[in-house]
Amino acid sequence: MTRIWILLQAALTLGAAAPGTALAIETLPALVVAAQNEALLGSFRPYLHVLLAFGAAWVVIGAWVFHIGRKLDRVARQVGEGRKAE
Prior knowledge:
single chain; mainly alpha; 90% helix
């Protein structure tokens, strides 16, 4: 959290120290974006295990659906072969 405040203070200082200059115009948005990215990553950190578990659950569900689809395809082929034999 302290890095965010340091970046914001630096952005405000550069903007106040040199208003209207190219340095302030180019540096201020970059520092603000860096502070926003840091805040975003920091907000998900306590819930990282939940996000990973959620992702793993979707992978398992996707694999299960794929497996069921293959089984149904196999059964459909067997039924088709049985009808041809009759």
